Structures are given as structure tokens and as C-alpha cells.
Amino acid sequence: MRAGVVIFPGSNCDRDCVHVLRGVLGQDVAEVWHGETALEGLDAVILPGGFAYGDYLRAGAVAATSPIMPAVRAFAQAGGPVLGICNGFQVLLEAGLLPGAMLRNHVQKFQCRPVHIRVESTRTPFTRALREGQVLRLPIAHGEGNYYAPPALLATIQDSEQVVFRYCAPDGRVVPEANPNGSLNNIAGVCSPGGNVLGLMPHPERASEAILGSEDGRLIFESLIAFVESRRPVPVG
Amino acid sequence: MATVRIIITLKPGILDAAGQAVRQGLHALGYEQAGEVRVGRYVEITVPDGLPPEGIHQMCERFLANPLIEQWRFEGLDASSMAASRPRARRPRPEGRPSGRNTDQRGLH
Question: Which domains does chain A have, with CATH numbers?
């Protein structure tokens, strides 16, 4: 798989993503500066965490106007897998590639700690190798992760299986106590109607090696790799 | 040139964690009379004279505000004061915004 990691001014998890994909999982990775306008020869695109443009205006708002974003939009509309992690999720929301918006955490604090999330849908390239109800332990680090959608939009998202992850207790129960930021219905990750664009607040790239305390994040990247490999044409002869 | 002054706030009913924190601070300083606090953004933009209000509304709808959660009002395009806060007919969705964003037009748009 050849993945592109988009780097905005203020991204700070781009190297972590590159490290996991290239160093841990042995994949080919292109580091794509946000000022570029083309995404060629890529199987997947990742928008990493950080504080793109200092979160000026709103988290992700200015980054959504970056020169690379029309190419990201075209890549997504053509069915290409796009993963937004934390600030990358916020960029995808602001770009209109995912539904909903982020508010400040209801607890008025930056939340930086491990959480548990439950897999709600396996229809995305990033979760197809997981099983519904599977619990992952991943770290979060955000001040604006309080997922919000107006009632009609929320109903649509839930009815069309666009909720991919929910914050949960270690045993998988989705309870208010497991919600770190006030997100509606404990939503931690949503996907596009087609399932190929996914955004999540937790950081799988920070939990992909045993030395970091959890390898659960690697499952999301491995799922993506398996998806990409399965789409490759089988060599003849 | 005219200077447009735009105020953007969270819609009524949307949790304003920053406003709550500011209210706590005011109370900590003894201003117990401070009730609900809403924190927003203020943006000044210079524009050519004669720009129709619709141009500013588009800037807000596409970029300066997030119509899912925020509302806006502005003044400075003409002699009228903060008169732009009015319900508007729904416009076609701007490029790059999800369709769900424009379904809720309550508030000050």
C-alpha cells in the first residue's frame, strides 16, 4: 500500500503516522505538504492530528481551505479511503467530507488519556478486519472533541450506519461515564455515506506498538492495508 | 471601502463550554450577578463600498461560521446598525459544506 500523510502547518502527529505505516507496518508512505494540489499514485490518504493553522477560526476550518483539499475531496469522491485522526477528523468535518461538527469538550478541559471505543460498524476499509462490538483501547488528546449534529442529521447518521466508533466502558457498555467530551450518543468516529471516509478522535497511531501500552490502533491500519491489497488486480500468468 | 463588523456566536441551546468557564471566572472574582455567558468571535473585514449583504452572508456561511452550530450578525455595510440579523430564504449549499448544514436556519442568519 502507498499511503499519503497530509501535513498542514501545525500538524503534529504526521510523523507518528508515517512511523507506524512505514516503520512498523512496512508500507510505502508519501508525505504530502498541504500546499500541493495533487494526490497521485496513492491508495489511501491520512489527515493526521495536531493544530492545523493553530485552530484559528475553528479547529480544522482554515485547513479545509488548503490547496490540497480539492484533491482530497476528489480522492474521496472517487471512493478512495481517507482517514482523519483527531484534528484530521475536524478538518474533514469542516471540509464537508463528513457530517456534523465539533464543540469544545463539555468538561471544559483538554482530555489526554486512554479511552475505550466500541466498533459499531465494520463496513469501512478501516474496520472491515475488526468485528462489531470489539473494544479498542486508544489514547485521546483533544479540547474540541464534543461531537454534535442537529437532531435530523444525527438520526440520518445513525440510521445509515455512519457511526463507526462509540466511547465505551472497558467491557463494551456504552455508558455516559465512558464519554470523555460530551459527544452526542458517545460518538467517537463517523464515516461518509459510502464508508470510505472515516474520522475518529482517538489516536490509533499512538497505540500501534506494545511499548506504547496498546497495539489496538494497529488493527485499524492493518484493516486498511488488507482492504487496499484486496482491491489490487490479481497478476495474470 | 467599508469596514464590516461581524459577530459570530454559538446558536442558542448549543453548549458553550468557554462561556461556562468565563462565568466561573467572573463568579470567582465576586461578580455573582453574572448570569449566562456566551463567548463568540468578532471579525472585521474591509470590503468595497456597495457590497450587498449577501456577500457577507456567504463568507459567514461558507467559512467564517459553521452554520450547524453558529449564528452571525454584522454591521457596517451601510448606515443601518446590526440590521443584518434576519431570517433568510435557504440558498443552494456552497461547495464544500455538507447538505445537513443548511437545514437548520433558526437564529440570526
Answer: 2-231 (3.40.50.880)
B103 contacts on A by Cβ (under 8 Å) = 150, 152-153
Q: Which amino acid is at B107?
A: G
- ipTM of the assembly? 0.86
User: Mutate which of A55, A105, A108 to disrupt the B interface (most B C-beta within 10 Å)?
Assistant: A108
Catalytic residue among A86, A142, A144, A191: A86
Chain A residue closest in CA terms to B93: A96
CB–CB of A204/A138 below 8 Å? yes
Element of type H or E holding B70:
strand B70-75
The pLDDT assigned to A232 comes to 81
B32 in helix, strand or coil? coil
What percent of chain B stands above pLDDT 90?
70
* Alpha carbon distances (Å) from A232 to A126, A220, A225: 17, 19, 11
Structural domains in chain B plus CATH codes: 2-97 (3.30.1280.10)
**In chain B, which residues have their Cβ closer than 8 Å to the Cβ of A95?**
96
Chain B interface residues (partner A, CB cutoff 8 A): 10, 14-18, 20-21, 41, 63-64, 66, 68-69, 96-98, 100-101, 103-104
